[in-house]
Design goal:
The protein is an alpha+beta fold and about 450 residues long. The protein is built from 7 helices and 30 strands. α1 crosses α2, α4 crosses α7 and α5 packs across α7. It comes from Algoriphagus locisalis.
Amino acid sequence: MKFPRLALSALALFTASCLSPKSEEALLFDSLEKLPSLSVNDASSFSLGNENILLSGKQQELTLETIHLFTGFIAAIKTETETICLDNPDSFTKYPFAGKQHFQLENQGLEVSQLQFISKDKEGITLLYSLKNVDNSAKSILFQFQPSTDLKSSILMDSTFGTNSQDQISFDQLTGIFTAKDEANDWYAVWGTSTEFILSPSNTACASEVPELGASSGFEISLELSSNEEKVIPVFIAGSDQGEFTAIETLADLRSSIYSDWDKSFALIDSLRSTSKITIPEQEILVAYEWSKYKFGLFEVGKDSVHGKEIGAGWEYHMVSEFKNYDVGKLDQEIFQSQNDLIKIDNQSVQSLLLELLGIEADIENRVTFIRPNLPKEWNEASIENLWVDDNMLTIEITTDENQMTVEITQTQKKAGLSIELPEKYTQVKVLGKEVNTDTKDGFRRILMTGDHVKIEASL
């Protein structure tokens, strides 16, 4: 299965033809429109992470698997007359591997957005701050950024990992990198911007309270913005419990790989979005299904299985109904902070549970897909598009009412077998419009077929 062309590349070609082309960083903001998204209504429960790092909460706390880095960070805009703390966004949106906060500073003639981006498997994050002058006159402003460190064992580690001590922060003028270290341990947090900008150490009036054994230090960047000009300032943050060099190495990797990391993440989500796409009447469960794909990849029919579930009458719908209260906003936090696999299995299982309700199983070795519709009575229809079963891609549509059930299937491997099983209460069965005789076994009528298109109509 090939990845589609990246939206970022298409946007780059488009903007190249414009009179005022956007920067590469600004194009990342534009490409967000092509990603699945959800509005964050409660910033305190927001989380974004991978296996190694977690960003969470309104204060934007930052944690590695082994050590805690920041209690939070704050950005601010300083004009000649005031300092505007960027802590109350007009909107907050979550994407599978990013989050965006938007600030409409109408009185100052500015639009500001903060983009949080987490690369797969890296112990660091990238922040992009877009600052646009929407006034007719030029502006001189200062952009300020300041974190508060609290280097200590994370909640996933016990006390034997190390005892929390006082943090110390230093700034290297040559590299433009801030380094925080725990005095008693090789625990480090580092942050800085790109070589394009000259930063000066400076603390903002918006900084929050510093933990007892923590520290806080920030920087500011002077900007001149002409009318309608937009500039994007990156901030790279990394950490390590293996020494300062490892942390700085991660920061350098974030700097050099921002676009390739974004492209890889974007391409993966774009491919997952169009694959194994389910349509069901219950929107809340559908959202849980989609975001399960984005976090865990595709459920492999015929290879994976549901773990730890007690099977009984109607158990699939009972289990999948639990995902009506599924909070995508804090999904990453639940996964990251779980000290066993139970939460991961619960979140992964929504895919397999929905396939159980559609009655889809597979025997890959013998190249047969089995379909025994098991829709809850609340659903009159359900479908799945572009479902991969090994090298065969299927689309399956199921509709039911009191007197009839219709199952329509298309598949790319027309020689692959299809076994459709329908309740024996349906006494009349048509295949592609022609009535056929069927045998019953264990309360079901089974129709064995091959071909690239099959339509079964059964009635009482």
